[in-house]
Specification:
By secondary structure, the protein is mostly helical. Helix content is about 50%, strand content about 5%. The protein has a six-stranded mixed sheet with strand order 1-4-3-5-2-6, with helices on one face. A hairpin with a 5-residue loop joins strand 3 and strand 4. The structure holds zinc ion (ZN).
Length: about 400
């Protein structure tokens, strides 16, 4: 979330008291005259009232500058009877005649988003109010009150707080393994081939499309994300020739990395974008008809997994131990997707009642939730009553750090 910049004003106050709690923001205007009042100016007025100093915690000037008023921790003097649990934001101007500026509206929304996150209250009309909703006053002026009533301010504040997440949520929620499975099936691969390919990709990258080979994370001093950003921005120029394994298939050789980079740039996407890498991977596979034919004729998961190992990934180590690890990964995907999908087709009301019935990719999450008492009655592991959809949402939330 973007944080609003607060301009310090270093005003001197009389006695202040610590606020007990904070669950509401109250908006005000200057009123009377449409002037661009500063925090210092208002401080003077309120001192003249015999108050400890400016009663609002923030003053938003017409150019969008947010000035510090009363310290954020202190009980304000802006909403009689409600000061003990509220933060007062003053927007400079008289909004019974003029309108708040675009800059004021945006910064007000951003500040509300920040405060709601800091104090843990929701951004809605029970927690973001105009002064006149608490007592009989024209403040904060009809033109600002309208922006509260029509949802403009709370809508923007919610966007500042959750925007990025909501954008992701509007796309269908999908785990990388589901996305990859569907992609490969969509290209016409059979279940053995799709699982065999995924098992190998998992062994290469853990199915993380921004995965940078660990050795190079140390050598280059960059994390997966830092490397990805530096390549995308052009700040790091040696992507093609650095021999660092990268992405879903841990592309390493210069011609393959050059191909991936060129493909991503041509599409205007990040080199670490999963969809881009899947499309590029598919192009590479198309150039290897021998491999595709062998995959099409694979009679088992083991068959398909070894075909990918020997004829596509060709890692330095192709020992039996490596073969069996990759085959195991592949078998897990086969069980999770090929079999789960079949079960779902037979019964879309399928319920998962204990952790051992849950698909393997979701087991750590479900187990963690049981251990934390978030699922499964009082310590009981049975009767979870989960649908696959619920399980997917839990795993996505878990990966986002919610549990
Ligand atoms: Zn007011």
């Amino acid at each position: 979330m973007e944080r609003a910049n607060i301009k310090e004003t270093n005003l001197s106050f009389g006695s202040l008291y610590k606020r007990d709690s904070t669950d509401m923001v109250v908006l005000h205007h200057t009123g009377g005259n449409d002037i661009d009042a500063s925090a210092e100016q208002i401080h003077g007025w309120h001192l003249n009232n015999g108050w400890a100093g400016i009663g609002y915690h923030f003053v938003i000037r017409k150019d969008g500058t947010i000035e510090r008023g009363r310290p954020e921790w202190a009980v304000g003097s802006h909403a009689c009877g409600e000061n003990n649990h509220t933060i007062g934001i003053h927007l400079s101007g008289d909004f019974s005649q003029a309108k708040p500026t675009t800059e004021q509206i945006e910064k007000c929304a951003m500040l509300i988003a920040n405060l709601s996150a800091d104090y843990g209250f929701p951004i809605d009309r029970e927690h973001v109010l105009g002064h006149g909703e608490l007592m009989a006053t024209d403040c904060p002026g009809a033109n600002l009150q309208t922006l509260l009533d029509d949802g403009t301010i709370t809508g923007k504040a919610n966007w500042y707080r959750y925007g990025a997440v909501e954008q992701e949520e509007s796309a269908p929620k999908m785990l990388p393994e589901e996305k990859i499975w569907r992609f490969l099936k969509g290209k016409g691969l059979n279940d053995y081939a799709a699982a065999g390919l995924m098992g190998n990709l998992y062994a290469e990258s853990g199915l993380s499309s921004t995965n940078l080979e660990n050795y190079y994370e140390c050598k280059l001093g960059m994390s997966d994300d830092e490397y990805t950003r530096a390549v995308d921005s052009g700040e790091y120029q040696n992507f093609v020739y650095d021999r660092a394994g990268y992405g879903l298939a841990q592309w390493t050789y210069y011609n393959r990395k050059a191909g991936l980079l060129e493909y991503a740039r041509a599409k205007g996407k990040s080199v670490g974008d999963l969809d881009i890498q899947l499309e590029f991977l598919w192009q590479e596979l198309q150039m290897n008809q021998y491999l595709l034919e062998k995959l099409a004729n694979a009679g088992s998961v083991q068959d398909a997994s070894n075909t990918v190992l020997f004829d596509f990934e060709r890692p330095a180590d192709q020992s039996e131990a490596v073969q069996s690890i990759r085959e195991k990964y592949a078998q897990d995907y086969y069980d999770d997707f090929a079999l789960t999908n079949k079960m779902l087709l037979e019964d879309d009301e399928m319920r998962y009642n204990n952790v051992n019935e849950v698909p393997e990719w979701a087991r750590p999450t479900i187990q963690k939730m049981i251990d934390k008492g978030l699922l499964g009655g009082i310590g009981g592991k049975d009767k979870l009553d989960l649908t696959l959809e619920m399980i997917r949402v839990f795993v996505i939330n878990d990966r986002a750090g919610l549990y």
